[in-house]
Amino acid sequence: MSIHVLCIGAHPDDNEGSIGGTAALMRLRGDTVRFVSVTDGSKGHYAPGYIADPEMLVRRRHEEATTAAMVIGADYRNMGIPDGEVYVTPANTEEMVRLIRSFGPSGQGPDLVLLNRPNDYHRDHRYTSQLVLDATYMLTVPPMCPDVRHLDRMPVFAYWQDDFSEGGRFRPDVVVDIGVVLEQKSDMTAAHVSQYFEWLPYNAGTLANVPSDAAERRALRAENVRNRAAWWRGKFADAAPPGSQYVEAFQISEYGRRPSPDELKELFPISA
Questions:
Q1: 3 state DSSP class of 103
Q2: For helices 14-28 and 182-190, what crossing angle results, to 10°?
């Protein structure tokens, strides 16, 4: 049975870096996967040209995100909120309701929605999560955004892994072995050249360490993806699948449908 999976991140590279492995496994089994960015990514760079003309960066990041999604055959959408300016407003909440309702069969919507927890370090991340959570109940309310049919059932909402403790620790309800798709996850993240090889190293003060050769950059991305997935495996060792080395993990939100253990096996690419 194939399902519809909606992955919602604040920025154009958030989904790939967080749950790219699980998304790749879902595509391999025939699921329909959509990546959504709430912001346009217009502030994720240091170059004077992008500061003077943010639309140049918006176009570049849209192309990068589209290319990344194509690695696994997913599609990509962008809500277009200016980067750094995500707020929980009536208009944004209504747009989120429409976005979630419109993915999947009419009246059913997505089976599973993946997002970050609302206690993330980045304000855009926190408010993106809150936008989704504020939309949850209203998805089934007919007078809310009547231009897009309400859902007859609530999707399952699940947070991807994090290491934050303010507001409570992450709970690994589901741990997915992503070892067989590490290459795809590396390719997806490497498609975001402006972020992983320019902006993020600049912001961290490590830009001088980034190689200029494309093959060396790809190898660096693969190493980083592998190390991070192995680190999560160590952190969630008690809940990880036996024999796994590289994982992504998820916490089921209380705000959506609460799946049974059998349904979890249908929603997530797990065998036990």
A1: coil
A2: 140
- Taking the C-alpha atoms of residue 52 and residue 141, their distance in angstroms, rounded to an integer, is 43
pLDDT at residue 1, rounded to an integer: 76
In a domain, 242, yes or no: no
Eight-class DSSP state of 122: S
Q: Is 223 inside a domain boundary?
A: no
Number of residues assigned to the chain:
272
Strand extents, DSSP E, the chain? 4-9, 32-39, 75-81, 112-115, 156-160, 174-177, 247-252
Those residues whose C-beta lies under 8 Å from the C-beta of residue 247, and which sit 6 or more positions away, are 175, 176, 177, 178, 229, 232, 233, 236, 240, 241
- What tens digit of pLDDT does each residue of 196-217 get? 999 999 999 999 999 999 999 9
Evaluate whether residue 114 is within a structural domain: yes
How far is it, in rounded angstroms, from Cα 121 to Cα 166? 10
What local confidence, expressed as pLDDT, does residue 272 receive?
58
Q: Residue 147: give its domain's CATH number.
A: 3.40.50.10320
When divided into structural domains, the chain yields a total of 1
Task: Name the pTM for this structure.
Answer: 0.97
Q: Which element (helix H / strand E) includes 272? A: none
User: What does the CA dihedral 197, 201, 202, 207 come to, rounded to 10 degrees?
Assistant: -80
Please state, in angstroms and rounded to a whole number, the distance separating the CA atoms of residues 170 and 95: 28
